[in-house]
Amino acid sequence: MNTARPIYENVKSLQAERAFAERIEAVTGFELIKLPIKYQLDFAALEDDMVKAFLELKCRTNARNAYPDYAISLHKYLAAQSLFRATGIKTILAVRFTDGDFCAEIGELKGCRISFLKNGIRTREDSQDCEPMIHVPLSAFQKI
Questions:
Q1: Digit-coded pLDDT (tens) for 21-53
Q2: Is 11-143 a CATH 3.40.1350.10 domain?
């Protein structure tokens, strides 16, 4: 029996992610290098080969204020916190909304709401996609 989890990245989503990464590189001057999947976040931001931040990039099809906050997998958030605690290096959630690019440091967020995504993402029909979600307040985001 195959127990491997499916990977939902595809050519289109990877192209969107790379375009967003290039925008971040242009604004920050950092080089973004794709991390191996075992690190659970998407990129390391480098300056002179030194890691300055770890990033999770998301590209959404809605405006920033379409929802009262931004929900992300609790598992992904815990991975970001773990990297931050182990290294002291910033962990950043960067989101490309239809009305702009925004980022939030998520390594030390506290007091966020936790909900449970009971039915997973509707288009996936994947029971393993049902999970706790952390709600990052929109006030935590800064425009890139």
A1: 999 999 999 999 999 999 999 999 999 999 999
A2: yes
Q: Which contacts qualify for 99-103: CB closer than 8 Å, 24 or more apart?
A: 99/63, 99/64, 100/64, 100/143, 100/144, 101/20, 101/23, 101/24, 101/143, 101/144, 102/64, 102/141, 102/142, 102/143, 102/144, 103/55, 103/141, 103/142, 103/144
Whole-prediction pTM? 0.86
Phi-psi region of 125 (alpha: psi -120 to 50; beta: other; left: phi over 0): left
**Would you list the domain boundaries of the chain?**
11-143
Which residues face 57 on adjacent strands? 94
